């Protein structure tokens, strides 16, 4: 417009600022203000438009900062602007400013008084709130129910339920009670975690003719959740449904908050089902949107997460800076770094919003978790952010995950030179980067610096040092650190013992295994599935299969745990490695009987091992059980046998002269079960003769691998 010679009036600028407020377009709003400053100069109308933009963006402190600029420009706010500034100063906690602004007005209206009462609430000043009511009366302004309810809220925030009750009685005598009065008093009982008193007040409300609404029930619900009374919370939900009180976004947010203490998938499903049947759109409320995103991420509900993000992209929700952080975090979990960049650029470029340290952390973590470590470093260096422990920890995690221990150490030295103060968690991240590759000299340098900075090493620090010595193969040093932890009472659990046991497995230190197990028992350390898996692997490599079975029998009882499918698969692989196909087959069946299901990799390993050992009929039986050909298998659980393994089996059957008896019928059953049949499978079945060595040694890609990780 300027290039075409059009005149841009103040009215147009004010109108554009109003549109910027609706869309929260900070960058455009500030560009308009720069134009006005350079031209005709600022006016109260333009300042009012900019103030509205900041307020709509939740930036109340910046809106208040405009007051000093207005006065510096020699302008005087009008009555409406003073009222807005009083309101905004309360919102951002600048209560002293709200009182100063009130003195600028010759006459206060009821809204101005309300702002002053709310400011008293911010300061938990009950006496000041009551004095404002008195000022109203002295100025011949009759306080209404709204003003009284506002003072009641101050009493509740200050925890003064005695004065709150007296005020409610006064309101009752004046005929000013309403549902808001009762809900505010209800909040007071709930703040004190007094569920009994809160429920009695609900009955009192109903008796007075005020039926509890969604706000009432949400108070009870929130208290029940905070108290850990989840059944009480669900009883409240049932009561709402019984009384035909529909849930709102607060109801849903409270129940999702309860999932932070959830003990199992059943609780998660129950809450998510409630979200579904509430028919509340998470994109309709920014706080709820953040809560739902966080819930889906925490519980790895990635299908739901993907669906919600797709709905968000079609919605009119204009995210604030914290919500951009949640969205970036969500797309990072879905492995969509390009989407993370899109919203990062939208936030800064299109919206002109400045990310805070938390959102920077979300973006750095998104890049690191998606393998873009160099991009994360570049973003960190370009940001001109003051380095802190959290941001450094994120970068170190990236270096650790990509095996760049030297870059991690370079970052450590750089942060030391710049005087960045580290916390224990950050130091542990640096220690871990070096311990994983056995760089114990660097580990000890970091630990020494922790002591010098009064940064106390904790159980994780010591456990990571143990890991470093174990990786390096210096198991005696690892044991020395462990003994030091035991003697000094530093907290530690099975992880540190598992680490040393794994080191014994990798470095063939059989002399320490029994000693470690005995130490666990003496210090009442509960073994875990990881402990059992490591022992099974160790005994397998030592050709001590009986000890592996003995551990499988005894450790779950000691640790009160159920062996998981990884441990079962590890034991099955141990049998195959030790030339005991019959035992491997029995483990496979025992595993199913125990309610565990072998995965595709384990089933493929078993079939491949049986073929390698000439156990053709048994291999066919396993395939039939996996695909459920006889009605008792593992059908529909997503488990399959890899194609290369099936090809090897069919080729071996044909070579052994079992084409008609076993190979062809098996192929037909696979076809009937809608298993993908390739040309290679067909060719393998039709093959009549082939080298015995080739037929019996062809295995799935990669050969047999142990099914348990340490």
TrEMBL record:
It comes from the Eukaryota. InterPro entries: PPR_rpt (IPR002885), PROP1-like_PPR_dom (IPR033443), TPR-like_helical_dom_sf (IPR011990). Transmembrane segments: none annotated. Residues 689-710 are annotated as: Disordered. PPR repeats lie at residues 43-77, 109-143, 144-174, 178-212, 213-247, 388-422, 423-457, 458-492, 493-527, 564-598. SUPFAM superfamilies: HCP-like. Gene3D superfamilies: Tetratricopeptide repeat domain. This is Rf1 protein.
